[in-house]
Amino acid sequence: MRPIARISAAVLIALHGAVALAEEGWTLLDGPGIQTALTGVTLDYPGAWQDFRETGRTLYNAGVDSWGYWQVQDDRYCSQWPPNAFWACYDVHQRGNEIRFTGAHDDVSIGVIQEAP
């Protein structure tokens, strides 16, 4: 396949994915939107939960506490879990009280915002 054809095919695939998410009611969040959606929020996942602190700390619990860091870089949510120094970044979509994280390899996690007691 010629380079132009490969690029065109990649663009069409990306556009199809964006249209599919929009049709499902997901809205892509930008940097400020991610900051607003996550700061001070706790998300519930199947068998786990995650708390996003204003300080940039995050606590994930799937039976055991695991502390890490989070930040927004280039309109993406990024997290880092010591002792690993690597920051993993994700696109963030929101649909109502659901937050969807999509990684570089199309790995997806969906959390539900906990209601205040």
Describe the structure.
- With 117 residues, the protein is α+β, with helices and mostly antiparallel strands.
- Helices cover 25% and strands 43% of the residues.
- The chain is built from 2 helices and 9 strands, in the order αβαββββββββ.
- It has helices spanning 3-23, 31-38; strands spanning 27-28, 41-45, 48-52, 57-61, 65-73, 76-80, 88-95, 98-102, 108-113.
- It has an 8-stranded antiparallel β-barrel.
- The longest helix is centred in the N-terminal third of the chain and has 21 residues, at 3-23.
- The chain is globular, with a radius of gyration of 16 Å.
- The termini are far apart.
- The model is unreliable at 1-17 (pLDDT under 50).
Give a short overview.
By secondary structure, the chain is of the alpha+beta class.
* Overall body shape: globular
User: Strand-and-helix sequence, N→C?
Assistant: HEHEEEEEEEE
Question: Residue-averaged pLDDT, rounded?
Answer: 87
**β-strand amount:** 35-45%
How many strands? 9
User: Reading side by side through the largest sheet, how are the strands ordered?
Assistant: 2-3-4-5-6-7-8-9
Q: Bin the helical content.
A: 10-25%
Q: Whole-number radius of gyration? A: 16 Å
Question: Largest sheet, described in full?
Answer: 8 strands, antiparallel, barrel
